Amino acid sequence: MVDVTNRRSTVIKRLVIVVIAICAVAAGFFMFQSITSPAKAVANQKNSVQFASEQPKVEMKKVAPEKYNGQVRKVVYLTFDDGPSEFQKEILDILKKNDIKGTFFMIGGNIPAYKESVKRLVKEGNYPGVHSMTHNYTKLYKEGKFVEEMKQAQDIMKEVTGIHPNLVRCPYGSMPGLTQALRDQMASAGMKEWDWTVDSLDWKLPGNPNGVTQNVVSHVNKEREVVLMHEKKQTVQALQTIIDDLRKKGYEFEVYDEADHFPLNFWHDNRI
Ligand SMILES: [Zn+2]
């Protein structure tokens, strides 16, 4: 009996020594890692702005969409610029019928004439982004009134809907007009800007809704796409087919969410 007890205690002692040794090696490894980790070096780097010429394509910085039932989700954001207009009601009707929410970028000066439509847009879960007051390239970019105009449009939106939208879209896109100085002003104001990944070119195609559909559906291929459209008659005419065809391609539809922002500007400026 004594012999067995001694043997047992020897085994336990050896086990304890092995466990302590493993812990010591692991602790040493993690300490070494934390000192030399490249992730730490990257985190300490200053976030420098890259020129578009250095990065030819817009890359979305957000982590790729989560998998769902083992499948990667394919998501598309439908965006509508230059409203509110006489076509907004029909766009909202189609979105509602399909249980889809859209992201709108509206011109401040147009809002007062379509107050009820814009209120409905918000009530139905669509995002009320803004798109300047004048839509004038010279005023916005050459005279540097961009942030001032966007703030005015935000204030009008707030007055009508109670929402002060942080996301704006640059008339004509952010390249080349939205200079570093303007982006600095935006960053200080907490303003974000979305360009797009697919351009429907709908404004060029009056009377040709099939052309609009084709421009969108043939170019939507990545896991996450943001489609630029406008409040135009041909867009209204194309919208149901666009939705049907994108669904057939396995896409789901999402609306912009400030809590879930990801940068999407042609300058690759991650501050906005
Ligand atoms: Zn526009």
TrEMBL record:
It is an enzyme of class 3 (hydrolase). Its EC number is 3.-.-.-. It comes from the Bacteria. The keyword Metal-binding does not apply. Residues 74-254 form the NodB homology domain. The chain crosses the membrane at residues 12-32. PROSITE patterns: NODB. It holds the Pfam family Polysacc_deac_1. SUPFAM superfamilies: Glycoside hydrolase/deacetylase. Keywords: Hydrolase, Membrane, Transmembrane, Transmembrane helix. Coiled coil: none annotated. One of its GO terms (molecular function) is hydrolase activity. This is Polysaccharide deacetylase family protein. It comes from Bacillus yunxiaonensis.
